[in-house]
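User: Thanks for the earlier help. One more: Transcriptional regulator, GntR family. Can you show the sequence and predicted structure together?

Assistant: Of course, both are below.
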Amino acid sequence: MKIYAVDFSEETPKYAQISKHIKKLIDKGKIRDGEKLPPIRKLSSFLGVNNDTIINSYKKLQSEGYAVQKMGSGTYAKKREESRKLKRDYAETFKKMKGKDLDNYIDFAGETSCNIFFSIDNFKEVINEVIDRDGVNALIYQEALGFEGLRKSISKYFWNNKLAIEDILIVSGAQQGIDIVSKAMINVNDNVIVEKPTYNGALFVFKWRGANIFEIDMEKDGVGLEDFKEILKKNRIKCFYTMSYFQNPTGMTYSREKKEEILSLAEKYDFYIVEDDYLSELIYSPNIKYESFKSLDTNNRVIYIKSFSKIFLPGIRLGYLISPKEIKEQIENSKVNTDISTSSLMQRALDLYIRKGYWKDYINNIKSMYLKRYNYMEKCIKDILKDKVSFNSPGGGFNFYLKINDHIPVTSDRLFYKCKRKKVLISPGVLFYRDRDDGVKYFRLGYSQTHETKIKKGIEIIDKILTFDKDN
């Protein structure tokens, strides 16, 4: 028991200090993978804390993937070294590759629009016009909520003037939107529901806030509602984070029926829906109709986040957020405390870009281009990978999410390293799950950064690895 001793400080809650200490013991191998952790009463007595402190420590370890609870048996340590190494290697891959280096690879991992589709001349025009028009004011932070002109354009062109501009908050992309919402409303030990799998950037934010994270498996038309209801019945949920269109990484889109049911549950159980409207501009299937959670919300239960960065230019870091009136002030204060204001020049330029009609033309153009890539990649997967993988066609977005069939003895992390050596970049499924074991047979292929001429070659390389690699 001596290894569990903690020298407590006053600045951090004791349960968090205990869980941090145990994580270090697991990472260093002083607590073995699968080793049973001390019973709650025994550890609470040894450390001189109450039972609830140990319960919260063990819950935090479970939420971060460092422990598993076995009913009637206890809590057991879970080593996360492989998952952490893969995430580090994946991140380092893109940190080290720039420009021409990346051109030597077939990039199936990119998540943003390809710059070859963007007309720089139009953007230079609006930048110059904004500077001529506004002078130095274009470079000065003036409005905490964001440039009024851009908020008016968002209301007019994206919401048919159904939103008051006071309800629109300009943010520096979806990631910042998730972050400021979390700071505004999520405290340590609050309960959050996420999709399984989900965007790892959101997982990181919720973990950082000390939230208890509940995962619900994605189905073809959204999360499984039976599991969703069971969690709501047993736990006080603060919010549900969802990507309503072409969910990252699965590519799945919510049906209207599930949206309406979840909105009804939000009202009944008093929680907020944090809607990350991800790539809804890129709908290819005639069977998919655009109706966001926010557009169907009649009870002020939806916090809506929209990024321009994924679909437009990643470097401009712009998006917007719409929040219910009850928590609007909290979220605005969180934004101000985060960075005061978002780039004034970029806001003014985007406003003019939208009003001149360039935005609409740009979206129509890239939608046409990406539809060709979507159809071509889908055909290549079906023709080349055949019985090696299974997948659902998303009907839009940037990605396909593939499951390596059970008779193929290859894991997604091994596939990532093998592909990288062959100059092909993929996103292994383990990145999108709290527990890496859930993602070992999945991987994501994106086509936003890769021309048709490279798509077939890349998939042929993946096919050879899946065919000849013996991961036994």
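User: Great, one quick takeaway?

Assistant: Residues 358-385 form the longest helix (28 residues).
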